[in-house]
Specification:
globular; seven-stranded antiparallel sheet; 20 helices; alpha+beta
Length: 759
């Protein structure tokens, strides 16, 4: 019996060891682009689509299962593909701009999206960041795609047939196609967009086939017109080929531009004379170069797949919207004037989501691309008069806050230089003191500046959430003002305003609460009510949005013990809710309800930092426990692998940071708050040439608690690590245990920064 028991233990141990990957290589192959695609309007498991693109590329490609104009352009439960779509879509809620698609078929050629849709199976689908392939069963055709930043190469494998077609769909809301048979070329544009106000917007595309057309046709909506050039509301085309042999390959090179057909031709040079396989290999190499900045070691197969799949999602948005002209100059289409302007521009991100972790992640690991993004923000301000809060691709009237302040300040605090920060600071002051169009600036700013809060009863929605975010944004402005040596009076103004969160703290409930113009709290008050005074959440979610002064919040609650009790309560409460503001259960509510983590709603951004706040109250082991719980339960490398909207890299950046062992609770400071490192070793290859190694050799699913920490061989007592410490390079060593160390990190001198104590 003892011998059998020993054998069982041995094999269990051996099996567990076998599941550990010492050091993964060819990192792009660990990514699952289908993670998060099993989503719907009612329930988001990510709301992602397989993005076949290069990091921060101007365009991405995706197989299209939804009908034209459907934000859920690819869903895992679909069984038909309608086309292969060039997309710039940040999320289904924002939808797309400038889309067009290609669709091969055999038999009866049709431009009708319902009729041309073909059955497919995930069993005959290959999805990688740099390559996509699928078999279209109704047509016996295989389609392959591989990208560059502004172009893509297609390879269609047809059966022997006299009826092979490719449909080009330029979408509705104004489009144009011209067929040039002598050059096997099609040019066109799509002017469809879903958000904002765009001037003179067109996405100009060029498609060059390597095989002559047999016949061609153009369609305006569903009317066939026998000419080679046509504009109208919804233009499509069919090009016809005869394939004389089985497995005949027809290739196409595709590029597009927001500037002109001539610039699209210039962008097509990214492919040049490269064949499909060469483009594929170059795209793969690009991905591996970017991914190798973070080398993990000693994780399970699923942990590694999850890590690199979430890292992949942090590397798309905002997308480049700039192009390189024939003289090598960087230029971009300006949605504000409709003209071509010099310099950088990016689009497709909402700062309400991404200021929290995505931009801090770029500042740590990929600062050079964020330097370009900061220059792009400058151009937004110069050309449009405001910094965007949601750009898709222009100002979009959605969400709240003035969190461009955080994005700008965090970059400069973290050491980015070489751009006109004084002009950007001017933009921050302008946004902080004015209400702009399309959710720019600050709605309710006059009330906020006079009263210290946005009142609940003045017909401004989500007033408490706005107040809390404006207060943090004022803190970010004050931090940048200090670095720029602005007048002390100016620094004090914004630092004092950053304490405005206190106006909304209700000592009776120990929660944030809407307040009327007369200074009285709103009545009745249900802290479980979603929306109303808050944004996509309730008071239990937004009360923690005092990123810059957690100590001040703790003292309002009655001290560290009461603060800890309130944090604990989030997880102890049932996931009950009041949805009366929305008149029904929105998907964010449903995602909290089914997660079985009480009132903790990781599927949406406002509460994602809350787990790390135990570090501010001397209970870091509680952070360690809950960080692991969320990583292990809420993220999987599967189609249902997220627990809510992925949101332009933010929810993914939470996982990436947390797996490293720390998280930026308060952007615009230099501190990362410690959690529980997931892997046995992680090497960060920083852009300054240094390497920073995070070691946790005995970390596993049981050993989730931090017992001791050493920085470069010396005992490290703080509950945070500084940005500068990481940039210097070195080794950060964690000794993990299966029981909490209730003595480490318990004294106030180890706590992270709070403005009240300025420690």
């Amino acid at each position: 019996m003892v011998t059998k028991l020993v054998k069982v233990v041995f094999f269990i141990t051996l099996f567990s060891y076998a599941q550990q990957i010492a050091k993964p290589t060819d990192l792009v192959e660990w990514i699952n682009p289908l993670m998060g695609t099993d989503s719907s309007y009612e329930l988001s498991n990510g709301n992602t689509y397989p993005s076949i693109a290069l990091p921060w590329g101007m365009h991405a490609w995706t197989p299209q299962t939804g009908n034209n104009g459907n934000g859920w352009q690819y869903t895992y439960d679909a069984n038909k593909i309608r086309g292969f779509k060039q997309t710039h879509q940040p999320s289904p809620w924002m939808n797309d701009y400038g889309p067009f698609s290609l669709m091969p078929m055999t038999g009866k050629g049709t431009i009708d999206e319902e009729e041309r849709a073909s059955w497919f199976s995930h069993k005959s689908e290959i999805a990688k960041p740099y390559y996509y392939s699928v078999y279209l069963a109704d047509y016996d055709v295989t389609t392959e795609i591989t990208p560059t930043e502004r172009a893509a190469s297609f390879r269609f494998t047809f059966p022997k047939t006299d009826s092979a077609f490719v449909a080009i769909d330029a979408y509705d809301r104004g489009s144009y196609i011209k067929i040039i048979p002598s050059e096997n070329k099609i040019i066109g544009y799509s002017s469809r967009y879903a958000r904002g106000k765009l001037n003179n917007f067109k996405n100009y595309f060029i498609i060059v086939f390597d095989t002559p057309f047999t016949t061609t046709s153009l369609w305006n909506d569903k009317t066939k017109i026998k000419i080679n050039e046509l504009s109208g509301s919804h233009i499509s085309s069919l090009v016809h080929f005869i394939t004389k042999n089985k497995n005949t390959v027809i290739q196409a090179k595709v590029a597009s531009s927001f500037i002109s057909f001539e610039q699209a031709e210039q962008n097509l040079k990214e492919i040049g004379s490269d064949n499909f396989d060469t483009v594929t290999q170059k795209a793969k190499n690009t991905w591996n170069t970017i991914l190798e900045k973070i080398q993990i070691e000693g994780g399970t197969t699923d942990q590694i797949r999850t890590f690199y799949s979430t890292l992949y999602r942090t590397l798309f948005f905002p997308m480049k919207m700039y192009e390189i002209d024939t003289n090598g100059n960087i230029v971009h289409y300006s949605p504000y004037s409709g003209k071509t302007m010099p310099g950088y521009r990016f689009a497709g991100t909402g700062f309400w989501d991404t200021f929290r972790a995505l931009y801090p992640f770029l500042n740590l690991m990929y600062p050079s691309i964020n330097k370009e993004m900061q220059e792009g923000l400058l151009n937004d301000y110069k050309e449009g008069g405001w910094l965007p809060e949601w750009s898709s691709p222009s100002y979009s009237d959605i969400m709240i806050g003035n969190n461009s302040a955080s994005v700008v300040a965090d970059a400069y605090v973290k050491g980015l230089r070489g751009y006109d920060i004084e002009k950007l600071y001017e933009a921050l002051l302008h946004g902080a003191n004015n209400e702009g169009p399309q959710a720019t600036g600050r709605k309710g700013v006059q009330y906020y500046n006079e009263l210290g809060y946005v009142p609940y009863n003045v017909d401004i929605n989500e007033s408490a959430a706005r107040t809390l975010e404006y207060a943090y944004d004022d803190f970010a402005i004050s931090r940048l003002a200090k670095l720029l040596n602005r007048p002390q009076k100016e620094i004090d103004l914004y630092e004092n305003r950053s304490m405005n969160y206190k106006h909304l703290f209700d000592p009776e409930t120990k929660l944030m609460r809407g307040k009327n113009k007369d200074g009285k709290f709103q009545k009745p008050f249900n802290p479980l009510k979603w929306g109303d005074a808050f944004t996509e959440g309730n008071s239990w979610h937004y009360t923690w949005s005092v990123f810059h002064d957690i100590e001040g919040l703790a003292q309002l609650m009655g001290g560290h013990e009461e603060f800890t009790t309130m944090l604990d309560s989030v997880f102890k409460m049932a996931p009950v809710f009041d949805d009366s503001y929305y008149g029904g259960i929105i998907h964010e509510i449903r995602e909290m309800q089914i997660a079985n983590m009480g009132q903790y709603a990781h599927g949406n951004q406002p509460i994602q930092h809350m787990i790390y706040l135990y570090n501010y109250a001397g209970k870091p082991w509680k952070t360690q426990y809950w960080v692991r719980e969320v990583m292990e339960r809420m993220y999987k490398p599967t189609p249902d692998g997220y627990c809510g909207d992925e949101d332009n890299g933010q929810t993914s950046a939470w996982y990436v940071f947390s797996a490293l062992g720390f998280y930026p609770v308060c952007p615009a400071t230099n501190q990362y708050i410690l959690g529980s490192p997931l892997f046995k070793k992680v090497t960060l290859r920083l852009e300054n040439g240094k390497t920073f190694t995070i070691e946790a050799p005995n970390s596993n699913s049981e050993n989730k608690y931090v017992d001791k920490v050493k920085l470069n061989g010396k005992e490290y007592k703080n509950n945070w690590i500084g940005h500068e410490d990481i940039l210097k390079g070195g080794t950060f060593n964690f000794i993990m245990n299966n029981t909490p160390n209730t003595k480490r990190g318990t004294t106030t001198d180890t706590f992270p920064f709070s403005l009240s104590t300025n420690n």
